[in-house]
């Protein structure tokens, strides 16, 4: 995961915005960004970015929103990550139990 792609929307001020959202008129310099934004107007949109924290299950349309959610809700929470499969656990006992079996199958 790279950090640099996160701020594209904020950093495009000096670029001409050629693509306008037909729903709200907001301008975008990339067609892809406009299409991504336009999907947020669709009430039946799929939310591809799921929070990986245990017992949360929140889903977001944009990676940016997921990141904000994690920083706002889960920041400061101690998360134990499996060193083998990177699966996060909020409880140390569950994490220990998982690590004992993970990768040994
Ligand atoms: Zn729009
Ligand atoms: Zn969450
Ligand atoms: Zn694991």
UniProtKB/TrEMBL annotation:
Region of interest called Disordered, as start-end residue ranges on this chain: 1-25
Q: Which GO terms describe its cellular component?
A: nucleus
Skewed-composition ranges (Acidic residues):
1-14
The entry's keywords: Metal-binding, Nucleus, Repeat, Transcription, Transcription regulation, Zinc, Zinc-finger
Coiled-coil region: none
> Where does this protein reside within or beyond the cell?
Nucleus
Listed InterPro entries: GLI_C2H2-zinc-finger, Znf_C2H2_sf, Znf_C2H2_type
Q: Indicate the segments forming the C2H2-type domain, all copies.
A: 19-46, 49-79
**MF terms in GO:** DNA-binding transcription factor activity, RNA polymerase II-specific; RNA polymerase II cis-regulatory region sequence-specific DNA binding; zinc ion binding
* SUPFAM superfamilies assigned: beta-beta-alpha zinc fingers
Q: What's a GO biological-process term for it?
A: positive regulation of transcription by RNA polymerase II
Name-wise, this protein is C2H2-type domain-containing protein
């Amino acid at each position: 995961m790279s950090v640099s792609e996160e701020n594209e929307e904020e950093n495009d001020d000096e670029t001409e915005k050629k693509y306008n959202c037909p729903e709200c008129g907001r301008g975008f310099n990339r067609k892809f960004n406009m299409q991504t934004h336009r999907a947020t107007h669709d009430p039946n949109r799929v939310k591809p970015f799921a929070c990986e924290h245990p017992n949360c299950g929140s889903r977001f349309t944009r990676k940016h929103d997921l990141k904000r959610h994690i920083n706002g809700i889960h920041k400061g929470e101690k998360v134990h990550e499996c060193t083998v499969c990177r699966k996060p656990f909020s409880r140390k006992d569950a994490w220990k139990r998982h690590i004992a079996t993970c990768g040994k199958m």
